[in-house]
Amino acid sequence: ADVRDAIGRLCVGRRRCVVDAGSLGVGCSSVDKEAQVLTVRWTCRSDSQPRSELALGGELPVLPLRTEQAVIVDAAGKRVRLVGVNWPGGHNWQYVPVGLDKAPLREIPRLIRVLGFNFVRLTFSTDMVVANPVVPDHAVAANPELRGLRALEVFDRAVSELEHQGLVIGVDNHMHDADWCCNDNDCNGFWFSKRYSTEDWVGMWRTVARRYRAARGVVLFGLKNEPRKVCRGRAWNQADGAVCSPDFTAADEDGDGCVQA
Fold it and tell me: What pLDDT digit, counting tens, does each position of 154-164 carry?
């Protein structure tokens, strides 16, 4: 209670405040002072404008988009210039877009829009779609309402928030394995791999296409990120893992132990 009171005195109603150990009084007396971590979530209010313009979201272009020669236009024929940014993480081993352990989900798309972007590439792995695991609690620590959800459900929420901010989205099959990208030795360079056949990959895309066919903001499917050669050896991110072998490609290796994409 003394910590709450101290922060209230120092910070409530102010645009800026400084909090240090001396101003917090006893604090969490049962915890070693050197190990104490203070987490604060700000709530901003305005008497004259209860809901800010930013909180109201943005407007999507008049969809669907199409091309006229080298120009992208909306359904009304107006030119649309896409200014894009990557929101990675869904393709990694935590199965969620990065930052959900640090900030509320709604704030990340809002910030993307404020920074001037109108297009987001949202990455995922074949693993994420096929396995669709329950996401780890620590990966969504700043969003307790997401705990216990499966990876695709969190992905749905991200797509929805991006749409709410008027951002159009490209969903991108970044990796097969839920891991960092990319390396010639990671066995993820083709549309199939040791773990996933071409039929598995096509089936995965059917799942994604059906799931987001009604999502107005999803305007692009990135079928396979960075097609590249597959080489014999250990990937940079697999210090203790298996060595990649191109045998699954049923093709002859070149002199460097690689099969070209």
Answer: 999 999 999 99
CA-CA-CA-CA dihedral for 194, 199, 200, 206, to nearest 10: 150
Name the residue among 174, 149, 72, 158 with its Cα closest to residue 120.
158
Could you identify the residue written with the tokens 């901003």? 44
pLDDT of residue 54: 45
Query: Which tokens in the block code for residue 98?
Result: 């990065």
| Tokens, residue 78 | 């107006």
Residue with tokens 């990959």: 201
Q: Is 246 helix (H, G, I), strand (E, B) or coil?
A: helix
Q: Is 204 exposed, middle or buried (0-12, 13-18, 19+ CB in 10 A)?
A: buried
Cβ 168 vs Cβ 191: under 8 Å: no
The gap between the terminal CA atoms of the chain, to the nearest Å, is: 62
Is residue 58 within 8 A of residue 113, CB to CB? The reply is yes
Helix 107-114, helix 151-164: angle, nearest 10: 40
Compute the distance between CA of residue 152 and CA of residue 156 in angstroms, rounded to an integer: 6
Summarised one tens digit per residue, pLDDT across range 215-247 is: 999 999 999 999 999 999 887 655 565 678 899
Copy the structure tokens of residue 160: 């929805």
Nearest to 119 by CA among 166, 66, 56, 161: 166
d(CA 50, CA 35): 38
Sheet order of strands, 84-87 included: 84-87, 119-125, 168-175, 218-222
Q: How far apart are CA 160 and CA 142, in angstroms?
A: 18
